[in-house]
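Listing S7. Sequence submitted for prediction.
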Amino acid sequence: MRFFVASEQIVDNEVTLTGSDVSHIRTVLRLKAGDTIQVISDSDQCLTVRLVEVKAKEVKGEVTASATINVESPLAVHLGQALLKGNKFDVILRKSVELGVSSITPLMTERCVVKTNRTEGKIERWKKIALESCKQCGRSQVPKVAGDIETLETFCRENEHRDLKLVFWELEEKKTLKDIQPDVQPGSAAVLVGPEGGFSRAEIERAGQYGFQTVSLGPRILRAETAPVVALALLQSLWGDL
């Protein structure tokens, strides 16, 4: 099990874990002094840590070994995902982390069934989901979750410099990812995926003004929660590490 800690929690080869990590170590994993865990901080080093003290509110350990890890995709994918009803956004977030996404931005678009900009509690929950998903799938970097729900235009403007800029649209009948042939290997991609009702034509035109091109995911209409998973898997297969 890997734990992510801030760099200031590692001092002179001593690691201090607090918060929910303590509960996970004590009550879920039932680890004790002498057991080992893996710790990742702000680098590509995975530290092997031998537990020294396992207390109610704090766990201390000492670094016994370190190894360079390379599990991050060479393609940095920045996903702009429209809000979906229920817990579908949570599910997409978990799967996106597993598929190597670099950042996730929740979007409020014209046809979102969820008609609220209230972020109270949501952003922190999404950040926690991203962190827990990273632990589960063994990633070395936690994807960034945007600090607020953004508009489509804001996302397009902030990602205008990406190597690939794609909007997956069910009304695109011809162009698929196979037709995208960049001159050089892309290192980054900005991806837009719509809500249950899809993007409006006005939104497609607005994204196009920032250089986003529409692509299809095939002849069948995919559910809103399926589309981003398929899109990310295809992108990683073509230019990433799948």
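Caption to Listing S7: primary sequence and predicted structure tokens for the chain studied. The helical segments are 20-28, 88-98, 122-137, 152-158, 201-208, 227-239. Residues 76-239 form a domain with the Alpha/beta knot fold (CATH 3.40.1280.10).
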